[in-house]
Write a structure and sequence with these properties.
2 domains
């Protein structure tokens, strides 16, 4: 008996992504089936986490994204998104911990820069947040959806009166939670 391959073949992965794009619910069933067949494929776990986050099942999304990172610690996009999910779920320290390995990426890597920018947001350093997120957007040619998310944060930071001061104090975590609550479903 041949061993089961660890990774879903690229053709099947492409078909799955297309199926998910056409019909999320049907695609999720296909994804669950493929996860049963390829339980060690971090890409499948990450995809499930992304879909669950889109459905606002943040607890399930965290579990799936954590599984992706545990299976493939160098899956940097999954690591960044796990941290972003943790941050928008009100867990800034866990987000920083998830992003830790991204700080060893080259200084011009967009994920490294985005993680730094969001760490500055946690410290309410809005000027540096905007500067770093803008720099990351310029360098990110791979993931336009991520650029849109980072631009939404920049826009919200810039729309805060007095560069971040409000009549009612809002922490950076509260700010991100508000931003995530109004983010349209994909």
């Amino acid at each position: 008996m041949e061993p089961t391959p660890s990774y879903c073949p690229d053709g099947r992965m492409s078909a799955l992504v297309s199926a998910v794009g056409a019909d999320t619910r049907s695609g999720m069933r296909d994804l669950d089936s493929m996860l049963h067949e390829y339980p060690r494929d971090a890409r499948l776990h990450f995809l499930k986490g992304s879909l669950l986050a889109g459905e606002q099942d943040y607890a399930g999304a965290r579990v799936s994204m954590r599984q992706a990172v545990d299976l493939a610690p160098d899956y940097h996009v999954a690591r960044f998104q796990l941290g972003f999910l943790l941050l928008t779920s009100g867990e800034p320290h866990a987000a920083q911990e998830a992003w830790g390995p991204l700080h060893s990426l080259p200084a011009d890597n967009y994920l490294h820069i985005f993680a730094q920018g969001l760490c500055h947001l946690i410290k309410d350093d809005f000027t540096e947040t905007v500067k770093l997120l803008q720099d990351g957007i310029v360098r990110n040619k791979e993931n336009p959806a991520m650029n849109r998310d980072m631009q939404m944060i920049i826009d919200e930071v810039r729309n805060k009166p007095d560069g971040g001061a409000r009549d009612t104090p809002v922490s950076s975590v509260d700010f991100l939670l508000q931003q995530a609550a109004f983010k349209p479903k994909r």
